[in-house]
Each structure stands twice: as C-alpha cells, then as structure tokens.
Design goal:
This protein has 9 helices and 11 strands. By secondary structure, the chain is an alpha/beta fold. It has a single domain, classed as TIM Barrel, CATH 3.20.20. The longest helix has 22 residues. The chain is globular, with a radius of gyration of 19 Å.
Length: 333
C-alpha cells in the first residue's frame, strides 16, 4: 500500500506575525512589514515540508484571513458597494475562530482572476504542488444570501442553484490554477459531516463535486472534518474525487469494516485541536491498525483538520511527527 503524508489547510502564523497584524489593525504598523513577515514564514514552511519529504507541499495559506475570504473576494460574494473584508464576522463550526461570511445576492459566475494567491507556487517542486479550496457545499452552506430564508433556514431550490454556481466557479478556478503545474487540488469540507441538511442534499452534493472536478488533471480530494464521516457509508465512496479525508478522532472507524472502501484514504491522525505533540510511533501504529480495518487503496497521513488552531511552534512539531510516522510505515526507519 502506498503511504504518503502532507498538510491540508491553513497553517498558524507566528506570535510575531499575529502581533504585527494586531498593530496593523490599530494603525501602529505598516502593511509592508506585515506582508514581509508572512512571506518569510511562508517560505520557511515550504522549506520545512520539502526538507521533511512530504509528498505534496502547500504554501500554508498564511495570507488567508480565513478559509473562505480569498475565494469570496475573487467571486465578489459581498454586499453591494462593499468588499469581502466587510462581510459579517461569524464563528466557525466547533471552534473559537471566526470568518467573514460571504454574501450571495444573486446567481454568480466565474472569477476574473485567480481564486487564490499564486506567488509562492514556483518555490515548490513540480509534482508536489498542492492547492486547497473550499468545497462547493462548504462555500454555499457557510454563506448568507438568496438561498436562505429570514430565519437562516435553507431554500431548497435556491440552494441547489447556488451550489451549482459554486461548483462551476471552483472548477474554472482550479483549471486556471493548473496552468501553474498544480499536481493536487484538495477541497476542504468542514460542513458535510456536521450539517443535517447534507443528507437531503446528497445528490446535489455529488453532482456539485462532479462539476468541480471535471477535466482536472490533478489528483483531487475531499477532506471531511467537524464530524463523523462514517454516517455516509457506503455512499461515501461514490463521491467523485480521487481521495477522501476523514477526521480519525470524530469518525467511527468500526463502521468502515466490511464497507469495501476502495479509495485512497487521507487519515486525519494529527489532532489539530490540542497542543499535544503526538509520538510518531503511536501515529504509525494507529494508522496501521486503521488501514487493516478499512483496507483503502492507499493511505495519506494528514492532520484531522487545518492546524490553524494551535501555536505555530506546536504545529511545526506536529508536522515533524507526521513525516516521521509516514517513514515508519514505509519501513524507512
């Protein structure tokens, strides 16, 4: 079985960068100084991943103020005469972090620009370049606008339309990004295993992923977190992506036994919600046991969700443990 390891979302900024950002908001520091710090930390993170031998490398999304903001800005999902930085502040699911909720005031099309910052891609070796986007369902579900009633509930037909628009826009954006020799496109999915509505919209979600991944040459994945992915078995395997990611700490792995899971599994074995540094040997043992139970086509060790919730120095140690565990599983140690 092929064993890999890589990251899957926003990486934390250092205390120095967080303090600089706070000073910037108060008018006590310059954007130039803040950006220089983020550039430095992005380059350091890319170098760290490459030195550890991770199979795919990201830029860590340090310039992303939240996991939807750059995409919302590119697609102009905000109120008239406003911008994505002025959208309402909303608490993220199951966390004490916040994001600016996109506002969808009508049907929307493709972006006129790249969905994400591409300035660091050339620092990553070809064959290892990975980008991360929100899933169509996450983008639609975590937005406000014409697809919701005044009480916040979903308007079924309008939601299906917005889900379709999101999937087309994400596909167009991903195909444009393939011009930068992208090898891996991951769609982060914090809502599917959490939202009650995901069951009733399952067919629409499957179709939205078919659209989002259409004609992509890169490896594709959908990483589910904030809930138990086993609730969708056996239908989970029908999702039209190459790989499925699950949160090993929220998912009932026993339900996978006998489920004939035949996809490459991204096993979220690093706990991104606490600062405990996992031992590589324990990670390798846990992943080996899970692989025997689930019997996937391949296994990637990843964090259970983006590492943004822990301090940067802790996140670095967790990444080091992740890389070491993968080497143990491959018999390199």
């Amino acid at each position: 079985m092929k064993i890999e390891a890589y990251l899957n979302g926003i990486f934390p900024r250092s205390d120095e960068a967080l303090n600089a950002g706070s000073r910037l908001l108060k008018g006590r520091d310059s954007k130039e100084n803040f950006d220089k710090l983020l550039e430095k930390e992005t380059i350091e993170l890319i170098e760290l991943q490459q030195s550890l031998g991770l199979d795919y490398v990201t830029d860590g999304q340090l310039f992303w103020n939240d996991f939807l903001r750059p995409v919302a800005a590119a697609l102009r999902l905000h109120a008239k005469n406003s911008n994505a930085d002025e959208n309402p502040v909303t608490r993220q699911i199951y966390t004490n972090t916040f994001y600016r909720k996109p506002i969808i005031s009508g049907r929307f099309g493709d972006a006129d620009e790249d969905l994400i910052d591409t300035r660091f891609i050339d620092l990553i070796g070809k064959g290892k370049r990975k980008i991360i986007l929100p899933s169509p369902f996450a983008l639609a579900y975590l937005s406000d606008g014409i697809h919701r009633n005044e009480n916040g509930s979903i308007k079924d037909d309008a939601f299906a339309d917005i889900l379709h628009d999101a999937s087309k826009a994400l596909n167009n954006g991903a195909r444009r990004l393939e011009n930068h020799s992208i090898s891996f496109v991951q769609f982060n999915e914090p809502c599917l295993a959490y939202a009650e509505e995901s069951v009733s919209f399952w067919n629409d979600i499957v179709e939205s992923l078919k659209t989002a991944t259409r004609n992509l040459n890169a490896v594709t994945s959908l990483h589910l977190y904030n809930g138990d992915a086993s609730r969708f078995l056996p239908d989970l395997e029908e999702l039209p992506v190459d790989r499925i990611g699950i949160d090993a700490y929220s998912t009932n792995l026993r339900k996978f036994k006998g489920a004939e899971f035949r996809k490459f599994l991204e096993f979220g074995v690093i706990n991104s919600k606490n600062s405990l540094i996992e031992e590589p040997e324990a990670l390798a043992k846990y992943a080996e046991q899970a692989a025997k139970q689930i019997n996937p086509d391949g296994l990637a060790l990843v964090p259970n969700r983006p590492l943004e919730l822990v301090p940067r120095q802790v996140a670095v140690k967790k990444v080091e443990s992740l890389a070491e565990a993968a080497k143990l599983l491959r018999g390199e140690k």
